[in-house]
Amino acid sequence: MFLLLSGFGTFSSAAWFRPLEDHGFSQYDPALRFRLMFPLIFTGPHTIRNSGIAANLTVAVSAILLIAGCGTDGSAEHVPDSDSVYRNWAQDAQYVGRETCQTCHPVRYKSFVQSQMGRSWKKASLSLSVADFDDPEPIYSESEDLYYLPFHKGEDLFVREYRLAGADTVHNRVEQIDYIVGSGQHTNSHIFESNGYLYQIPLTWYAQDGKWGMPPGFSRGNSRFSRPITQQCMTCHNGYSEFDTGSENRFISVPSGIGCEKCHGPGSIHVEEKRAGIVVDVSSELDYSIVNPRKLSPQRQLDVCKRCHMQAAEVFVEGRAVDSFRPGQVLSETVNVFFPRQADSVEVFMMASHPDRLAMSECFQASWAQDSNFEPMTCSTCHDPHLSIELAREKTNSETCQSCHLTDSTPSCSEPSVAAGINNASCSSCHMPLSETLDIPNVRITDHFIRVVRSPGELSEDEVESRRKFIRLASLIDKRPTDSNIAEGFLSYYELITDRPGMLDSAEVYLRRARTTEPEADLSESFIRLWYLRLEYQKIRSFVRSSNRDVFSSAWSFFRIGEAYAASNDFGIAIDYLETAVDMSPGHLRFKERLASTYTESGRPARALELYEEIDAVNPNLEDAVTNRGYAHMVAGDFDRAELDFLHAISLYPDAEVALANLASVYANTGREGQAKTLIERLISLDPGNRRYIQMFRAVSQ
Prior knowledge:
Layout: E1 27-28, E2 34-37, E3 40-43, E4 48-49, H1 98-102, H2 106-112, E5 121-123, E6 139-141, E7 146-153, E8 156-165, E9 168-177, E10 179-181, E11 187-194, E12 197-200, E13 204-206, E14 211-213, E15 227-228, H3 231-237, E16 242-243, E17 251-253, H4 261-264, H5 268-275, H6 298-309, E18 313-316, E19 335-342, H7 354-359, H8 362-367, H9 396-405, H10 416-419, H11 427-431, E20 434-436, E21 444-446, H12 461-467, E22 470-475, H13 483-496, H14 501-517, H15 524-533, H16 537-545, H17 555-567, H18 571-584, H19 589-601, H20 605-618, H21 623-635, H22 639-652, H23 657-669, H24 673-686, H25 691-701
Antiparallel strand pairs: 1-4, 2-3, 5-10, 6-7, 7-8, 8-9, 10-11, 11-12, 11-13, 12-15, 13-14, 16-17, 18-19, 19-22, 20-21
């Protein structure tokens, strides 16, 4: 009897999400490495690389509704100077939740919780969803040959993943929806939870078109149920959530919707002072216990909105984290944002780009001019975040425009139908039209580039594609970024939006330049990240051998170094670095799984199984961990438990090749050659040109 062993499973990688502080994420490369063990066929572990990621979920949180004109309204009367420090910027200031704010501000609270921001995140129930759960059409994922069908049982919401072979259902998996993301103005996205670990469900309701579809990024590569919801996602799509900083996607508490403190800052000091009777006459002075954005300078007001409404490739300042920014602070001292510029950045733009688009407008630029007679335009010139769109006054946006444009020196609208009084269209309907975005399908948003919109005419497919061509990265927060900051922007852009190698080439150019322009900067971890993304593991190993270990401070750097040594079968050194990564981030399941698989590779399956049990205790359905635990059981000689794991992994994903190959090995070694042959035929159908599978088939057919 021969033994047919297969190696470790892959991460079902997500194309759009954000991981820990330095925003790296790793997945296995599709190419397998094979080696012989005994006189037999053995498939070794996959190599690893980073996937693309994205901070944004399917829906952009809207800050809503128009209230004020361009003219002076006294809002800047008590603007603090640049040296002012609010007491709720202190490290010990705590978030208290919007329900606490309700105690003293019931009217504001009542309107805000009905706003789009207030409804941004909620526990899943049929009555809170705008989606069709009664008679939906199943959604087909061509890349995976899988169908998705939403359904409900009473108030509980579910999604069924299944595959058909003719009239037969050959795969069936059901997950319950635990949270809904988005107010429903544009979308409802869906989240499921496993012991505090949050993952996105591969199904989104597109409200404007009234249809179900795959979430952004899933149509290119369906990550199914493995896309983590990270702290970066939660920071802008929900109120303050208590996060397990030693994890990638575990939350200790999750509120229901964006709260007051998103724009006002932590409220504990303010609440304590008011309860103690310390009251400030805000008509004559500022209350420094909490930030009132209306009293900030125009630039700081914009910074509050930019934190979430201008997103792409984010690069955080050293020592600052995802949740470091406080309203009223200078945003560039926390984070910089790098945004793609297309060949036609007038017509082609990303969804979360409202402040950038507004800044392109002549109205905005004129209001900020030194000789302007108007208050500088900000988001709150037209939007009141306390109100929902449904409660907006009719044509308020036109009234806002007319506060500047119906003066003696400016003409009225020249559109003939409007001038004739037969067209009641608002100013924004023509000058800020609903437009599609580059990154979110089936969604149309108000284009904040105010202009006379000219019809592009009929364009050929080639012309349309050429207008979407990437030209450069623009630095949107820090107008004078350092070379190292630009390099990190390219690295993040590569991971966030595209995996084109040119992004990494540009990153290398700026990193090498930074060696000269920033001689004091330690670029070690940036180079580790670059080489890791390029799979240049030898460069990582050479650098580490000539460096002091103390230069590395990120768990992701230790993880990447560990992977580089594992790729060369230097398991002892690999385990040392991977153990450090897990020690720094003990709740990071991906780190823990890779450490476990490396223990197995190094001949320590018992230690690996201990880690797999820890993973299983919090998420028993991580198919790659289940597959690799099965392999550890095989190495330990426990074929019965290995078989159960492989069957479980295949039930989670019918095309889990490594699990299929390992299960075929179990069958072949337990006298079930016929069943092994059936599985190997399945493997060959998945990858017809794979010579290893053909060799396996011949072996079991003898």
